[in-house]
Amino acid sequence: MTRSFKKISLLLLAMISSATVTMAQESSAGVVQRRSGGQRQRANQAAGPQVTQRMQSFYEDAGKNITDADRQWMRVIYRHIDLDKEKNAPLYFPEENIDGQENLFRIIMRLLANNQIAAYEYLDGREIFNDQYRVKVKDVLDRFHIIHTDAKGSTEKNPKFTIEESDVPTNEVLSYYVIERWEFDSRSNRMKTVVEAICPVLHRSGDFGGEAVRYPMFWIKFKDIRPWLAQQTIFVSDDNNIPSCTYDDYFNLTMYEGDIYKTRNLRNKSMAQLYPDADDLKKAQDSIQNRLTKWEDKLWVPDREEVIAAADKKRDQAESKTDDNEVVATDGAPVVGSDDQSATEKKSSRRSTKRSTKKEKKNKPKQSKVKESKASKSSSAVRSVRRRKN
Fold first, then answer.
1. Residue of 265, 259, 305 whose CA lies nearest to 284
2. Do 159 and 216 share a domain, yes or no?
3. pLDDT tens for residues 194-249?
4. What confidence category does residue 52 fall into, taking pLDDT thresholds of 50, 70 and 90?
5. What is the per-residue pLDDT for 116?
6. Which pLDDT value is given to residue 207?
7. Residues 148 and 266 placed together within one structural domain of the fold
8. Domain total in the chain
9. Are residues 134 and 213 in the same domain?
10. Mean pLDDT, to the nearest integer, of 344-348?
11. Is 355 a member of any domain?
12. Are 323 and 234 in a shared domain?
């Protein structure tokens, strides 16, 4: 009896010890798993917002099925976006990362350093986005003297770099080049503007100062960077301190302001080459912009209400033009009005002329038409009588 009891107790002790060992292993495994999750979370925060393959494919396939037969009409415009302008300030500020807010150039450099997007060579006059003209990130960093180190896990096929926040030259990227496509989609019967590519431009002056020189860095296809831009909210106005807009909305709604420096043409010349004179260049830029904005309006036949409204507007403009340029004098002769003459003086002069003409009409002696007619009748009667006597 005692031997069997001892055996049972030994078995129980062995079972308890094995259970405690397995529990300890499970707890230790859970701790390791939690640590790895925390480390992964911190790494994700440092790397910025994550983009899934499904999200990436969604933005890459957007507009992929649209052909030239659906577009019917398209024009490619190159713009220079100056960040000193107030409407373009959201692309520059904040200069440093503040509460998860990053400016556009920091997002681009972070994605390039992590080898998440592709950059293409800036060709003066021609933009070709294929593997032949894809640039190496290391060459770009070395060319523009951006300090960097090889990141952990970097390989020759998948190079990654670490760039300190203080080494990113955000204060020197003061403008961007943007390629736009203005196209008319026959499926939706609407004109839309599509941003095709973005190029950050460095503004650097020499060792002896002087005017800064522009250095276009590289082209980034907008559809490649859209998944990350759609997750970064920005401030677009000083009146609203809530970042309610994203970079993707900012570009798709063309909330920026930029001058046209080139249009795609057969001779592949810029606007400055086609129009050397500054005044002619400005007129050509305004003419192109007006044609783009009014192109859609010319496609449709106006309805009856629109025709009436246009006629009324034209008549009002003609009346206002005559009121401003011509004043009737007191003697009835038209006198050209000067800029110094006020509107009240013009109205009073018109009233005085009307009154004078009325008085003149009243003072004129009235000739009796009745007497003349009687006289004429009597003379005719006399003649007729004499003829009868003869």
1. 259
2. yes
3. 999 999 999 998 777 788 999 999 999 999 999 999 999 999 988 888 998 999 99
4. confident
5. 95
6. 73
7. yes
8. 2
9. yes
10. 53
11. yes
12. no
**Distance between CA 61 and CA 179 in Å, rounded?**
19
What one-letter code names the amino acid at 295?
W
Question: Is residue 320 included in any domain, yes or no?
Answer: yes
Whole-number mean pLDDT of the chain? 79
| pTM tops 0.90, yes or no | no
Cβ count near 378 (within 10 Å):
10
In this predicted model, which residue has the larger pLDDT, 302 or 212?
A: 212
